[in-house]
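Module 6 notes. Inverse folding takes a fixed backbone as the condition and produces residue identities as the prediction. Think of it as a translation problem where the source language is geometry and the target language is the twenty amino acids. Below is one complete input and output pair. Work through it position by position during the lab.
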């Protein structure tokens, strides 16, 4: 019976926590507007990261070496035999 009592107590605490969470969500207002605001902020972050990637493109040492190798290959291919 001890385990049954403990399970009932844990279950009751979980239900109470769920109710507090539901109440808190209600306090936040319209969930749709909250998710829309979050999505809008996420889009701002993604756009800023995309801009960073465009600016950073080909500036790292690996990309620079790749570009040098590609240019050499192009020049070698276009040389007269």
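Target side of the pair, the amino acids:
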């Amino acid at each position: 019976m001890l385990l049954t009592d403990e399970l009932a107590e844990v279950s009751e605490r979980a239900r109470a926590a769920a109710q507090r969470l539901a109440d808190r969500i209600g306090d936040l207002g319209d969930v749709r507007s909250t998710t829309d605001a979050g999505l809008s902020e996420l889009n701002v972050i993604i756009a800023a990261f995309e801009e960073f990637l465009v600016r950073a493109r080909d500036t790292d040492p690996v990309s620079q070496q790749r570009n040098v190798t590609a240019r050499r290959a192009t020049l070698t291919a276009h040389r007269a035999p």
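Reference fact for the lab report: The mean pLDDT is 80.
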